[in-house]
Write a structure and sequence with these properties.
Elements: H1 8-13, H2 16-41, H3 46-53, H4 57-65, H5 73-82, E1 87-91, E2 94-98
Antiparallel strand pairs: 1-2
């Protein structure tokens, strides 16, 4: 019986440092994609959203493009709110609105 050859991804994920770097980058990508989707759904421009949440258009653009490596929870919450959404923590049946 022949052994299945590990994919490149599987081999990379065996290295804990490379796996951690990948996961960090993936989380940042997901956040930027989420902000982009919220803005598109609400038809918000970078400048309009920046005005609403009190951030510079450059900061909003950097968040959208994934260049902004750290985003304050308060800023994210304000962006979400400006796009007409609420930020909610959920565990089982319990839901907590993040004010």
């Amino acid at each position: 019986m022949s052994e299945k050859t590990a994919s490149t991804y599987d081999r990379i994920m065996q290295d804990s440092k490379r796996k951690a770097a990948f996961e960090k980058g993936y989380r940042e990508l997901v956040l930027s994609e989420l902000v982009l989707a919220l803005m598109e759904k609400d038809e918000k421009s970078v400048r309009a959203l920046a005005r609403e949440v009190g951030l510079s258009p450059t900061v909003i653009q950097n968040i959208r493009s994934g260049k902004q490596k750290d985003i304050k929870l308060e800023n994210f919450k304000n962006i979400v709110k400006a796009c007409g959404y609420d930020l909610v923590l959920e565990k089982g049946e319990e839901r907590i609105l993040v004010m």
